[in-house]
Amino acid sequence: MRFSFAVCSIALLCGFALAAQAQDLSSFEKRVTTKVLPNGLTLIVCERPEAPVFSYFTIVDAGDANDPGGQSGIAHMFEHLAFKGTKDIGTTDYAAEKVALDKVEEAYAAYDTEYRKRVGRDEQKLKTLHAAFEQAQGEAQKFVIPNQFTEIAESNGATGLNAQTSLDDTQYYWSMPSNRLQLWAYMESDRIANPVPREFYKERDVVMEERRMRTDSNPIGKMVEQFLAAAYVAHPYHRPGVGWMSELSQITATEAAAFHQKYYVPANMVIAVAGDVKAEETMPVLEKYFGAIPAGPKPEEMSTIEPPQVAEKSVVLKAATQPLYIEGYHKPDYRDPDDAVYDAIQDIFSNGRTSRLYRSLVRDQQVAAEAEGFSGFPDVKYPGLFAFFAAPNPGHTPEEMRTAIHKEIDKLKTTDVTDDELAMFKTRARADLLRGLGDNQGLAEQLAIYQLRYGDWRELFNQLKKIDAVTKADIRRVANKTFVETNRTYAMVEFQPPAGPPAQQQSQGGAQ
Fold it and tell me: Which among 13, 21, 227, 343 is most buried, taking Cβ atoms within 10 Å?
């Protein structure tokens, strides 16, 4: 579950300020250089010469919520493709490979056309077309150098090489020795400008298996998927990030290329570099490589707005598994003036063993093994949910979790939080990520995220003022506005014993 990035970034920034002896914004600005290239790409360089390494963070303002209709899972698929190499990396002969990949797409299109027929599908023809598709894949595979992109990076000292796709965006990052900056700039710009959808259908099978493991065979994943599908009527947040199996199993490399062409344009991206780098030396290198990426129009903003919820919604699943409970209430996006208030409520309900839900449900009543509340679910760019989750102890039910959570919510609505609770929230925002103070990766991440979401990384500093401004009255006001029955969706998993085998099968089993 992805929590509001505001709390994490505030803690990072405040920890930085403590270690740097409370330097002000102007002194911090001396070490940060921002530049928008002619093609629209925003670059940020932060000088932190504490060790001969740097970290980078690329964020693309497109995630699973941007998947076109009928193509759920394609943003996540493209993240996987980004590690398959480029026209120059991962191939023995790109010109010949390109011809072979075109034949793969032609063969798959013919197979897919026959497969999609609801009436008159020729099964024998389907087998023949599928065999031709597999043969085309085999021919294209002859040109592939597996994992070459990753191996080049790691053999040059890259660590933490990874990527992730959320509903809101896609992120790529790693750390590297500072004397390999130019190599990184070449590799990262090359895969942005010249990705190749090699091994696409093989990788599609990998993502489908992810879905089976994360959702279809996972009680929490299955419950959350149904919960979000009920909570959202119109907005794409109702779709699973990994995709619906029927759509995921039929997306194509051609569709992935179209997604890249629309969303992976410089104007839709921010790249931040932090560490042992000097702006006057680094920026020209970045301009050389990233400035060569062709420009494109920034994608239009999403126009779909979730309509107000007017009645409580519910989902009840029955399975031979651990009972579970989740409920959520619609809330505004991260730009709302009350966003810091929701962060305060999250902290008071869920931060550690002194939090209200832990003390009440886990420690005192001992009805739950786990209980927490969290803001910004399933993501933060668009209006999301404030959600509560609980896993009952043996002998207890989801209904008990629901009752116990509602009692805590009612207390928040009718009684002010204590001075200590409010003070601890504000202090924790300054201390939670103190351990990551010298982490170039964390700093690059936050600079890029805030630049993308607010248009100015300096918003990091303004978050402190918003946190300090939260009052007890704000918390009661927001709780009463948000935590109401008509704004609530809940889902639960109730334990149901597995059905026993038929008597005849039992008899045959005994005979064996």
Answer: 227
How does strand 269-275 pair with strand 385-392? unpaired
- Residue 341 confidence (pLDDT) above 60: yes
Could you tell me the two tokens for 414?
């009718």
Neighbours of 274 (CB within 10 A): 28
* Together in a domain, 413 and 491: yes
Query: For residue range 113-162, what is the model confidence (pLDDT) as tens digits?
Result: 999 999 999 999 999 999 999 999 999 999 999 999 999 999 999 999 99
d(CA 372, CA 37): 43
Whether 431 shows a pLDDT value over 70: the answer reads no
Spatial neighbors of 488 by CB under 8 A, at least 6 apart, are 309, 312, 313, 327, 328, 329
Instruction: Calculate mean pLDDT across residues 362-375.
Output: 97
Is the same domain home to 126 and 210?
no
Q: 45 in a domain, yes or no?
A: yes
In a domain, 14, yes or no: no
Question: Residue 423 pLDDT more than 60?
Answer: yes
Are the beta carbons of 153 and 174 closer than 8 angstroms?
A: yes
Average pLDDT, the chain: 91
Pick from 258, 290, 322: which residue ends a domain?
A: 290
pLDDT at 14 over 80: no
Tokens for 75?
């943003």
Residues 251, 108, single domain; the answer is no
pTM: 0.91
With cut-offs at 50, 70 and 90, classify the pLDDT of residue 24. Answer: low
**What's the domain range around 108?**
92-139
Dist CA 508 CA 512 (whole Å): 6
- Same domain flag for 391 and 354: yes
Note whether 370 and 486 are same-domain residues: yes
Judgement on whether residues 162 and 46 belong to the same structural domain of the protein: yes
Regarding beta strands 368-377 and 170-177, do their DSSP bridges make them parallel or antiparallel, or are they unpaired?
unpaired
Asked if residue 378 has a cis previous peptide bond (ω within 30° of 0), the answer is: yes
Higher-scoring residue by pLDDT: 481, 436: 481
pLDDT of residue 433: 52
In percent, the amount of the chain with pLDDT more than 90 equals 85
* pLDDT at position 435: 53
Quick one: pLDDT band at residue 502, thresholds 50, 70, 90? low
Q: What DSSP assignment string belongs to 79-113?
A: HHHTTS-BSSSSBS-HHHHHHHHHHHHHHHHHHHH
Domain-embedded: residue 480: yes
- Whether residue 409 sits in one domain with residue 274: no
Residue 161 belongs to domain with CATH number? 3.30.830.10
Rounded Cα gap, residues 60 and 80, in angstroms: 14
Helix, strand counts (H, E) of the chain: 20, 11
Nearest to 242 by CA among 258, 262, 231, 228: 228
Question: What's the total number of domains in the chain?
Answer: 3
Residue for token pair 């394609």: 74
- Do the domain assignments include residue 454? no
Instruction: Determine how many CB atoms are found less than 10 A away from the CB of residue 312.
Output: 13
Q: Are 451 and 42 in contact (CB under 8 A)?
A: yes
